User: Which sequence fits this backbone?
């Protein structure tokens, strides 16, 4: 703690001239008693004059002493004022300083020293020209001079050379008065804008980069709000659906979704509300009416003051899905006849078997083998043989219902699976209808085609309580077909009985 200053006493500050005057006065009085009587009047006048002079000297001495005491008091007050301002700026969080009217720094805080990268001893007692580059000194001196000429405060923005390079600073400056009423100097408080400006610049660059990326990316990017409306749609997403972004923003997402797909949207919204991200397929309605399939990568629902909703990336997989369906169809269908191949027939038949079990319906399997296909190939060539197979497939399609499963198991062997509907299942009626179609072809088209069509057929019926598999049904129908073919050829069917492979 600073020791209080002591005010000097009058005695300690009495000049030696006063003692000399008093000594001379005492000597004059003593001499007056020794001098002759005739000259005593002169001595009295001299004494009076000397007393007046002495009084004048004492008065001037008193005034001088009072002025010295006053000046000492103000000097002490001014020194205390500087100390107070120094303590005040030391507790400020912002860089701060104060300097006298001559522009000399009298105090700084740690923030100011850190900003400049200088020690206190390198600043105190120096002017701005000693610590700042010449190109910015004139600007600050101009502001300081204007403030001293018109005391008060001022706020301005200007550069400052910091330890790590130029900074942009807001200067808040104010004059302060000393206890004696004189302007003591300037207090300065600094607000560094550099970090904010750098952050704003980085954010602006990031925003430009993000905008550029979002606008040029080939993937669709959409933002939906908590009410299920699009709040942002990038050009790629809009283009995929045949719209402009402005035509989609502020519209309900469901207005672009077919009704059969809306349960998917509801299910995924429930997941996002729980904070679950997901990837799923969703069909959208294109502007021209056709359906397009998208892979949606959606994040959880976000709740905030400015944004609420879901950000999702849309990938158009329509062509891929179409290709997958084509590949799937090729793997399940016979290329020549377009009927289901053995794999496709068995796959769909298994599903139909489960349905029949659940509904307690009967099933019938027809196993067909074309007659004389070898002779047709031998006489007309394989091209004619392929046409005969295609014509047989066409007649099978026309002879059975759309709900029935028709397949080519291989070579000249075909099969049909029919399930009982509201009317009783009549296998004989199914076979009779097939033979009528074959007879009609032979009557009208065989001459032009160069071949006649005929087939041996075996039929096996399974009741809902019968635990027979599809493979077993085919095997039994195959054996019945073999019996019919054998009968046609007078006991020589040309192949051993057993399941077709």
Assistant:
């Amino acid at each position: 703690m600073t020791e209080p200053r002591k005010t000097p006493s009058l005695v300690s500050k009495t000049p030696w001239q006063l003692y000399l005057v008093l000594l001379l006065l005492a000597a004059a009085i003593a001499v007056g008693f020794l001098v002759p009587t005739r000259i005593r009047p002169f001595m009295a006048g001299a004494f009076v004059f000397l007393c007046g002079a002495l009084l004048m000297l004492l008065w001037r001495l008193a005034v001088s002493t009072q002025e010295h005491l006053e000046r000492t008091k103000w000097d002490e007050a001014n020194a205390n004022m500087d100390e107070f301002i120094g303590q005040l700026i030391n507790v400020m969080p912002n860089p701060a300083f104060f300097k006298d009217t001559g522009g000399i720094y009298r105090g700084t805080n740690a923030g100011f020293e850190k900003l400049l990268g200088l020690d206190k001893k390198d600043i105190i007692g120096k002017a701005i020209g000693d610590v700042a580059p010449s190109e910015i000194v004139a600007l600050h001196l101009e502001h300081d001079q204007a403030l001293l000429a018109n005391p008060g405060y001022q706020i301005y923005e200007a550069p400052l050379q910091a330890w790590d390079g130029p900074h942009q600073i807001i200067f808040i400056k104010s004059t302060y008065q000393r206890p004696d009423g004189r302007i003591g100097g300037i207090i300065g408080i600094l607000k560094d804008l550099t970090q904010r400006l750098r952050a704003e610049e980085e954010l602006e660059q990031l925003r430009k980069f993000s905008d550029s990326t979002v606008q040029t990316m080939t993937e669709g990017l959409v933002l939906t709000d908590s009410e299920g409306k699009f709040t942002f749609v990038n050009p790629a997403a809009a283009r995929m659906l045949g719209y402009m972004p402005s035509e989609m923003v502020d519209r309900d997402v469901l207005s672009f979704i077919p009704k059969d797909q809306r349960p998917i949207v509801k299910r995924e919204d429930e997941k996002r509300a729980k904070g679950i991200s997901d990837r799923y397929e969703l069909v959208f309605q294109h502007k021209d009416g056709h359906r397009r399939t998208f892979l949606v990568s959606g994040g959880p629902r976000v709740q905030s003051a400015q944004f609420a909703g879901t950000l999702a990336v849309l990938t158009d997989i329509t062509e891929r899905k179409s290709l997958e369906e084509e590949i799937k169809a090729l793997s399940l269908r016979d290329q020549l006849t377009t009927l289901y191949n053995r794999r496709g027939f068995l796959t769909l038949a298994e599903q139909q078997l489960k349905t029949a079990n659940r509904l307690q319906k009967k099933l019938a399997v027809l196993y067909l083998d074309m007659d004389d296909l070898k002779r047709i190939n031998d006489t007309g060539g394989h091209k004619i043989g392929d046409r005969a197979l295609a014509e047989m497939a066409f007649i099978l399609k026309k002879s059975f219902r759309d709900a029935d499963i028709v397949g080519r198991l291989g070579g000249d062997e075909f099969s049909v699976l029919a399930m009982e509907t509201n009317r009783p299942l009549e296998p004989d009626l199914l076979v009779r209808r097939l033979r009528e179609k074959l007879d009609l072809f032979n009557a009208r088209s065989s001459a032009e085609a160069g071949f006649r069509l005929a087939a041996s057929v075996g039929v096996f019926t399974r009741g809902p309580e019968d635990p027979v598999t599809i493979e077993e049904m085919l095997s039994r129908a195959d054996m019945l077909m073999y019996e019919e073919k054998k009968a046609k050829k007078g006991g020589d069917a040309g192949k051993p009985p057993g399941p077709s492979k």
